[in-house]
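Recall the central idea of this unit: under ordinary conditions, the amino acid sequence of a chain determines the structure it adopts. In this exercise we apply that idea directly, starting from the sequence alone.
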Amino acid sequence: MLMSSINDIIVEGRILAKSNKVLVPELISVLGAVHGAFLENNGIIVIGRDYRTDCRMLKRAYTSGAMSTGIDLLDLHSTPLPLLQFCIRRFGASGGVYFTSGHARLEETGIRFFNSLGIEFSKQDMDRLREIWEQKDIKRVDPNSVGRLSSIPHTANVYEKAVPAFIQKELVRNKKLVLDCSYGPSGEISPPLLSGLNIRIIGLNTYVPNVINMTIPSYDSIKEVSGIVKASSADIGVAMDVDGSRAIYFDETGSIADYDQIISMFLLHEKSIKNNRQSPIIASQTVSSIISEVCEGTGQQLYFVNNIPGMISENIREYRGIFGASDTGKFYFAEYGPFSDANLTILKILVIMGETEMPLSKLLRETPKTIKAFKDISIHKNVINNIPHIFNPVNQQFDFNVIDVLYGIKLVFEPGSWILLKPALHRDAIELFAESKTRDMESRMIQEVEEILVSQEKQLGNGDN
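Accordingly, the structure predicted from this sequence is:
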């Protein structure tokens, strides 16, 4: 029996639940029909997925439901998310749907919906889907009007030519890059795109494994990238998220770049931003306070928005922003499109390195710093690997909001007060970085999080006994 409401599987603005337990094919077929009703039984949808077999199964179920309402589908099969968003705009589609088993929690599949601009559905759009589901307001078409399913080959070739058009190609030549594609479809797209610009690539995890039974990028794979960057004397390292929309960035020493530092670096050096100081910057409201100071120094207006799907993109359009950034690791270059693409971000970083003739470590060191409270906690490796589950917003209730920042977790206690948990690269420890307007609040946040982690370690010890 299908659920009467999809409230319980809408998490942080997206469909998210365990595959083949909650997200069963019968349910997803109805969801496809609901999406067709949302589009009033008319339109073209671009669909895609990552490599996991559960995503393939659920995409096929969605396809049958959407086609039953007369919707035509353009199938990208396995694809990075930015390529799907690119194709929505290129083909003038009505929207898109992407299926991915995100990196943070094993066996949970996410389904994301996009409008005709390639922007993720807003809360209002998701509320409309919920309303159609609850009212069972679905119209099936007659057999002669069932939607068509078509593949769209050669789109990767068009994309590979389009993305580099937004950079000075000569500035990235002969840079050396360690690239971990995290067993995602970016493994088919990113290496040829980047190597075509004469970037030297050491590629990792670019193939399709038979089974993916881990969250990726994992902490172990991140440590491996760090070590390979240093050992190979690479200029930069990148560990992509599964969907290719964001990544973790390493400087030439193998150290992980802080997202706030990367945002500051773009604000200070990226040419499209420097040439459009009259255009505002859009950022998630949980970024560091240093971003406000940087914008004040450059005379650029800064708008903060809630960290929910589609919000940065919509505000870039509404306020004609030139750049958007989130502390989840997403960077939006408005000259290209209202969405984040890790391939373009890599190229933008390399261009800045080429223009300034500075290594990434120096560029990051020269960004303004904010003083954060810090504590280092030695802790069992199993607790470190379990961080996404310990702070799972689906199963746990806390007095803070949980943000997945790809490498670690950010916990937001109140506006302007947050704590970032990052696994240490070279030993079993968690690094805590806290920012607030008061020292007392920073201390309280660190103490509360430390108590949770120590409690988890004690439970692990009891389990071992």
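Residues 158-365 form a domain with the Alpha-D-Glucose-1,6-Bisphosphate; Chain A, domain 3 fold (CATH 3.40.120.10).
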